[in-house]
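Design review, sub-item: ligand-bound model
Attendees: FS, YL, KQ
YL presented the inputs for the zinc ion complex:
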Amino acid sequence: PETPDIIPEPPAFYDEGALVGVLTTQPLGKPLDYRAPEGGAWAGAFVEVPLGPRKVAGVVWGAGQGDYDMSKVRSVIRVLDAPPMRDELRIFIEKAAAYTLTPLPAMLRLATRAPGLGDPPSMRKVYRRGEGEPERMTDARARVLDAAEEIGGLALTLKELADAAGVTPQVVKGLVKTGAILEEESPRDTPFPRLDPDLPGKPLTDDQARATETLRAGQRSGRYGTTLLKGVTGSGKTEVYLEAVAECLRQGRQALVLLPEIALTAEFLTRVEARFGAKPAEWHSGVTMTERRRVWRMAAEGRAQMMIGARSALFLPFQDLGLVVVDEEHDTSYKQEDGVLYNARDMAVLRASILDARVVLASATPSLESWANADAGKYERLDLTSRFGPAILPEMRTIDMRDQDLPSNRWVSPALARAVRDRLAKGEQAMLFLNRRGYAPVTLCRACGQQIACEHCDARMVEHRFLKRLVCHQCGESRPIPTACPSCEVEGKLAAVGPGVERMAEEAAALFPDARVAVLSSDLFGTARELKAQIEAIAAGAADIIIGTQLVAKGHNFPLLTLVGVIDADLGLQGSDLRAAERTFQLMRQVAGRAGRAERPGLALLQTFQPEHPVIRAILGGDEEAFWRAEAAERRATGMPPYGRLAGIILSGPEAGPVFDLGMALARNDAPLRRVGAQVFGPAPAPIARVRGRHRVRLLVKAPKGVALQSALAEWVAPVRLKGDLRLAIDIDPQSF
Ligand code: ADP
Ligand code: ZN
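KQ shared the predicted structure:
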């Protein structure tokens, strides 16, 4: 997004009876007019208002519009007990909504996800695990005790605990009588321990010290600026940006670090504690509701100095946010792909620009967008070119699969197997990487030739042998693995075709019978805690061979790991997505970067049928900048992002016909787009043409940089009347094109 130059007006106060606009999360589009309550209200105050027969919470957005029948305007019921939302956050919500073409209420919801707003916390009863054991144990009771233990020492409200266990509140109440669950008054928010930026950090290398100095100077400027911190895996990017955090804390401002994966937080918390003497606050889906309420308040009151979190942490009501770090900034999980479609990396830049805060985008393999912004001088760029200490970058080689003699249903080539054996003999770890969850991607009937597909999606059912089920990776639907073909009903002819990580585990067990094999795949772990525990165990040496999906590519440190074997380096290069080269390059480099992070040198072996492919050569080759320049040149020549702008329009509905017709009508009436020099392509079936029983069609709009694309899009879709169950979603800057 462009960086607006906004000076917030001083906060306004509205006297009793004055007309105010109150924005709620109800889908009404804009703020509604109310009269300020007795005692008045500040702009940004959280209030309770009548809405039809109901009472809902909302935020005083500003002065009322007065465009409503004045005799019908009702009064705000009361001002809630919550820190008011600052001008800055309201401006951010407005800008983010305008950029992503999201209705304001939906954007507000992202910023008010702390439940229980307004209920004074001291009035609440909370529940936690006690010492006692019930005499009579039932399934429901066991689930409550499990749920209470799962969240550690934290207390939940009655409803939260009952919901977490999937039982009625009565079951929890029953356990209170036995002493197995304790009922307590919720304590007033306990503050976080202080982080001390002046504790001595690690002595830095010359490279690191130079980068640190530049980041510190930027931080001290007190002005907006974004820095791309590009450093090979293991070069100490984290050490460097923690010094920017230290500088921010010294200024008395708050720092936010976004991580792409919750499983990464454990290691990160430990590092923060080592540097600053205390742990930061956390905000992500693994944080309990009670804790979220506390974190939300602490952020607003400036008592949480440092926050680490998932993309949604960007919408927290910080009192004085001075720095946002986006770690692994290229990671696709920063783009939220359902509900509000936004990219946290871009929104971080937007919010920082409103706040006069700094942004650090850290990655070994930046997105082409960030690379190009640095190239154009919009972002500052800092490079760390060597790994810290004795660790050197892994050597990378290809294994030409055309030369390898492999029996059918085997995927580990003799050359790769030799390398694995060699590592095992030395007591080191090896990783086999395959970006495919489950046992086999295809289940095929050898009698009729049909593949088993999802009934609701345009996708195959994937066999998950550990779960003993077929699972659709699009909608999550699953069913037991049948013995007979669902099409021809012939028994015993179903065959698993192709490899998934579970099948790799089988092959590894057969090839290396003495090795301990661990599979790391998101669907094998019920909770983030289990996954975290498994990662820690592996790092400590509890496995010899790690088999993983892209989950393992994301920045984990396995000190004993010295070999990475990529089972199918060609996988990402198939298909027509223009980003395929960029994605494959990033993924392969990231995976290879897992090897040899400590003293022992690492080796990465890429199994490929096309070793001459320019992307495969770029992955191996030293000249990374040449790869980025070539990619950039191609995108520039075709006017594609980041040198042009794209928006996707996804239309969906239960019947294919009306969805397609609507797409055709939109494509025909493209005058508002043509006026700004934008072109529309499609309608065409969306990358996944049917999901959850809904047919999906996509139009792509391509525009030169610098045109007012959003307003043209808004004008273009404004006449659309969605009949029946048709839906329209706009995806600004789509991930795939
Ligand atoms: P990156 O984020 O670039 O992958 P890290 O910051 O995780 O790199 O550093 C890789 C490893 O090297 C970590 O274990 C880190 O503690 C260590 N390290 C990096 N720089 C230093 C330093 N200056 N002194 C001591 N250890 C360091
Ligand atoms: Zn499905």
